[in-house]
Amino acid sequence: MRPFRECLRGLFATLRPLRWRVALSAFLGLLQVAASLSFVWCSKRVVDIATGEFSGSLLKGVIIFAGILLVLILLRTISRYWEGYVVVNAQNDTRSKVFERVMRSIWQGKERFHSGDTINRLEEDIRVVVDFICVALPDLLVTVCQFIAASIFLFSLSAQLGWILIFIMPVAVLGSRLFFRRMRSLTNEIRSGDSRVQAHMQETIQHRIVVRAMGSTDDVVDRLDNIQDEVRGKTITRLNYSAFSRIVLQGGFSLGYAAAFIWSVYGLSNGTVTYGLMTAFLQLVGQVQRPIADITMQIPRFIRALSSEDRLLELSEQSQEENVPEIHLPGAPGIRLDNLTFTYEDAKKPVFKDLSFDFKPGTMTAITGSTGKGKSTLVKVIMNLLKPDSGSVTLYDPPTPSGAGTLCNFMYVPQGNSLMSGTIRENLHLANPNATDDELYKVLSIASADFVKELPEGLDTLCAEVGAGLSEGQAQRIAIARALLRPGGILILDEATSALDAQTERDLLAGLAHEYHGRKTILCITHRPAATDYADFSLKLA
């Protein structure tokens, strides 16, 4: 849990671009306060006219009374509409900014946060922070102004009653908020537990078939129950603190209302209070007490906002990739490795050490080696997705150090099923949103994926999450076609044919060699011999 002041600065940073919208929300609230106090004054005047305490037109008073009521309704409607408008835009803008920082954060071989936890932060924590900034803050300003204005009005009618209420209510508020630090700690623990629940459900559902095949359905359900029981226990503890706070607060408010009522009754009996004044007293007590109740209710929201801001700062503060212009190299660039060494964080031994190799321009190189020898890691270092401990990666010609700006030169097919939910067309357009259908079918043909034409929906065939609905081999070929749509000159295939039968693999490799030999520099990670038959060179990692 980071320091209070640091989280507060984060909230102010989120507020800064929204300050004028929040200010307008507060202004609309202040107009409601003015209309509400006018309503109290008008109520008193109408009652006094009706009871003969004041002379005047009762009809005129009733018309003004109804007019103020209509203004109040209109102001509340406009205010709620504006509040909803501000919140939805603020949530979208904030989520986009944090999401972009997550996507541009430096990757060091594994994600810092579970994907379910990240989604929970992008959804629930952003909702909590935006709700506090766009709703609670203007409400707080309006509430303070309402309290001051209503108190002045009350003191102008009866200073003694005003002092009684001013004494009772702060004592009640103070007694209700003795557990601020414990409430914040519990809120942090509950939010963390919520993330664990979402992460567990998301990952289990994604691998549901594996879980069922392992006969572990009962185990994962029990684990969810255990996590939820832990969160429920902390939530109940927080509810207990909140319930105690409400008892103290409501007791103080009831005492204040009783004081105003008894004061008014005795005033009526001795003639010092009119019926209109009594009406005003009872309404003003509510207008003095309600702001204080609202302020105390903002404290839990403030605690939740601090906790959520803490979690969002953890996402936003991840180290970012360099934002540099793209460097497009012509033709089929070569790749030169000089004394390359890479070690994963917390690992004792390097994956590879002092590795040197020259991938000649326009050639195909088969990268081989047993499992765990660093083949996939090597291509990620070459693409600058991972930073080497020492040594260098240079693209040529002209000689250009591999970096954030050179990623545009790579056409990459990752290991495993990398399709996303959506249509085949949408998956292909991920590499080139402007590609025509003719271009899509061309790369599908090169990737031996002509089967797409035979599907009932063709390019508009839906793929479920991680390509579900297609075979592994079909998904691999579509992923290869997607990579071929990229304009880069270096094609990297990371076990991209592992799910294909021998003949389909050879047809695909033959198509790639025919289409791109001399035009692309191809790096093919493989365990199978077919790729080496088409390769010009071979690099074995031992």
Can you offer a commentary on this structure?
Strand 9 (490-494), helix 15 (502-516) and strand 10 form a beta-alpha-beta unit. Strands 6-9-10-3-11 form a five-stranded parallel beta sheet, sandwiched between helices. It has a four-stranded antiparallel beta sheet with strand order 2-1-4-5, with helices on one face. Strands 7-8 form a two-stranded antiparallel sheet. The mean pLDDT is 84. Helix 4 (115-157) runs antiparallel to helix 5. The chain is elongated, with a radius of gyration of 34 Å. The longest helix is centred in the middle third of the chain and has 54 residues, at 217-270. The protein is an alpha/beta fold and 542 residues long. It contains 16 helices and eleven strands.
Task: List key phrases describing it.
542 residues, alpha/beta, ABC transporter transmembrane region fold, Rossmann fold, 2 domains, 5-stranded parallel sheet, 4-stranded antiparallel sheet, elongated
Could you give a quick summary of the protein structure above?
The chain is α/β, with parallel strands linked by helices.
Q: Which SSEs are present, and which pair or pack?
A:
Blueprint: H1 4-15, H2 19-50, H3 58-103, H4 115-157, H5 159-176, H6 180-206, H7 208-213, H8 217-270, H9 275-316, E1 334-342, E2 352-359, E3 364-368, H10 375-382, E4 390-396, E5 400-401, E6 410-413, E7 422-423, H11 424-429, H12 437-446, H13 451-454, E8 462-463, H14 472-484, E9 490-494, H15 502-516, E10 521-525, H16 529-534, E11 537-540
